[in-house]
Specification:
Elements lengths: L9 H15 L16 E5 L4 E3 L9 E7 L8 E4 L7 E3 L8 E9 L2 E4 L3 E6 L11 H47 L8 H14 L20
Parallel strand pairs: 1-8
Antiparallel strand pairs: 2-5, 3-4, 3-6, 6-7, 6-8
Length: about 220
Amino acid sequence: MLGGPGVLPALPATICGLFLLSAACLGPGCQALWVHGGPPSVTVSLGDEARLQCKNNATRPNVTWWLIIQGNHSYPPVGSGQGSKGEWTIPKVNKSHGGVYQCRVEDNGQSMSSCGTYLRIREPPPRPFLDMGEGTKNRIITAEGIILLFCAVVPGTLLLFRKRWQNERFGVDTQDDYEDENLYEGLNIDDCSMYEDISRGLQGTYQDVGSLHIGDVQLEKP
């Protein structure tokens, strides 16, 4: 038989030792520290509040936040995280707060850092002169169109009705006066006949120049 009879009693002792070791490591102090990498970036408008979280599985985490300055490759600490998530809060951000923030968690002699989160500061868009919604703008444009239509149609319609009223009131009477008026009233018929006789008498005084025969005509010297 392989190993002899003395080997078999040693197996239970080894298994028991492994079991005790594993039971001792089930406590919180034996767990590996874990820190979430965090979001790659967080965008906050200028003047708003910024919140950065450092999620971890530590029982009593000691969280420290660092600001990574790329210009001189320095990592100055900016403050300690609050709560179990190690949250870092900036009440009112400005342009100087932009950059990469990294959290470091320490617990029971273990430490671990996050990958870092870039805090991006976004400037608000310029406020327009008339800050109103699209629905309000559409209603204003519709009202302007109605007012312009009213200003263009109503005066023209009134002028047309006024002209028609004037024609109906004065135009017909004037036309009747012209029709009833005798154009030959006051004309003396005798004067007309005398003028006709005179015109007929003057017709004989004219001679045809082409039928004249010029005889001995002497021109006077000047």
